[in-house]
Amino acid sequence: MHSIRAEYWDSHYPRPLLEHAAWLRELAIEIDENPSLMLSHLDNPLIDLLVENRPITSIERVQMFEALAYGDPSALLSAPGTGLPGVIVRELGSPAQQELFFNTVLQQRARTFLAVTEPDKGSDAAGMATRIDQDGRLQGEKWLVGHAATGDIGVVMVRTGSGPLSLGGVLLTPDILADQNCVERHCLPMLGLRGAILGHISFSDLQLGQDVLLGGHLHPLQRGMMALIRTFSRFRPSVASMAVGLGQAMADYGRMHLPKAGSASALERLESWDAKLSAARRLVQLAASEVDHNPAAAPHVPLCKVTATQVCEAIADELPGMLGTGALLEHPWLEKAVRDARAFEYMEGTTNIHLDQAGNHLAHARRQAHQGGLT
Amino acid sequence: MAEIQYTVTPSGACPSGEHKWGYHLRFGGAPGSLPTPDFSCALESTIPVEHTIVLRHGWAITSSATWASPEVMVADVGSLVGRDKALLRKELRPLLPERFGLLVLASRSRHSEGNQSSLLSAAALGLAVVKEQLRFYGDALNLLQDYCNARLVGGRKLSGIATVRAQLGDAHRRLRYLEQWTAGTIDTAYPTPALIHEVRILGDELSKLGGGRTFLSGGFREAIAMFEILANLYPGNNDA
Lengths: 375, 240
Description:
The complex is a heterodimer of chains A (375) and B (240).
Chain A: H1 6-10, H2 18-33, H3 45-51, H4 58-71, H5 73-78, H6 83-92, H7 95-108, E1 112-115, E2 131-132, E3 137-146, E4 153-159, E5 167-172, H8 174-177, E6 183-187, E7 198-207, H9 220-223, H10 225-257, H11 264-293, H12 300-323, H13 327-330, H14 332-341, H15 351-371
Parallel strand pairs in A: 1-4
Antiparallel strand pairs in A: 2-3, 3-7, 4-5, 6-7
Helix pairs in contact in A: 2-4, 4-10, 4-11, 6-10, 10-11, 10-12, 11-12, 12-14, 12-15
Chain B: H1 20-25, H2 39-46, E1 52-53, E2 59-63, H3 64-68, E3 73-74, E4 78-79, E5 89-91, H4 96-99, E6 102-106, H5 119-150, E7 152-153, E8 156-157, H6 162-181, H7 193-210, H8 220-233
């Protein structure tokens, strides 16, 4: 009832990814009920793709993530893979750290995490409290982190000193995470996108060696806030692309399941959604190409994330009513999809944060234009 | 229902016996539990005849107590005593209703086609659900205001930031507006798609103010998702 229809797929995505997306769609409802179910499928060819150490451009990543999210974003996020932590390890890690991380992910089919958000601080890096104390022990907590409790290896952003530049990432390997006296991890119960398995992780007197600090060989300016900004810049278009993928999936689901006497206004609305999704897709790809050129100067990143999220949410708002009374009971995949659609607002920065950033970019662009003598 | 009040606790002071993440889910200090809508009570108290379910397009959502009653009836149809009750089956999915003390019933029997509750009964339930959702939003807004007064960002109260204050103010405005819209009975306050849309916007605003924690199970978003399921059925598309 909720399988992907090939003719709809071919309108948007390359055929080679259809098999993977279709597999994710098949698992969608089961993963929603049991997010750890993916561990029973680690021999699937898609997992090979996700765990390999294969640097890809942002453009390639957004195209792939949108197509796979069209399958199912929750199932995609439940899978092992290098993901967001892989980006920062590649950005900052020494050759030994990169080898350790990527080999662990490949050989163990490991799920991974990048822990930034702290309770009551959101993702406000300046207010970060998790820290390495003067004795080299990790203290603090993070939450709302994908696979914080289930990840086998991950990166935790920490304060390494008292100054504003004193931020860094520490690579926590399986043996470090296994220290239950000093590391406590819990899965958080989620409304939707359950495959992401958000978690809470806290550290108490966790003794760390010097070799865990990513970018220890780099200048502090290169490894702290700027590295985090570049990493998020590289990954945010991917989150936006997942929102577009889910939005397209819902629109095509509506197309398949409209009552036979689908009204003219319903068909018109479907076409309108397609137009909005196409525009959002182009904005995401524009952002991704900016990131590939210079991740520190990609003004379309915040624009694409907000736009994609809002388009996806609008479809989730309207589709159930369009399919009729009781549609959310009649269509289990739809009921799950509209829950999943609400997650993107909270991933990789909320709308307020991105719009604030967009305003800053605009102000900066105008200042530069005035300095250049342009009107 | 007693008003929920937020009190500031010392930073990091998690009540004993409660895990840290549960404490953070409750905005790090709200006493008791998070506000939640009581849809079960709203459904039970709306239909004049006790132990009555409203069946529409082969579906019903009701409280566990109503379904367990030996005298359960279908509004506008009649008693389900005996053979007829077997024509309705309890559905295991979606899982969300159970968290609100509700269950989903489905009928695929020809016996029920045309034998369903009236649109008016469905609309009455829909209005009750909207009113209960707005009551819950009132509690949620109070909690958010108290939380924003207590939480500091860069040494400054969150509620001192103009954009946050404006968002709280807009949520307050929308809530008062919707309370006026839904004052009265079904004759004056029919739950139209336009009304549902406005309730949805307010829910989005409150969830965004509450941040990522509202997406966790037990948070505001869960109540909104349950509201959407109910509103999609009662009154749904207004098709008779």
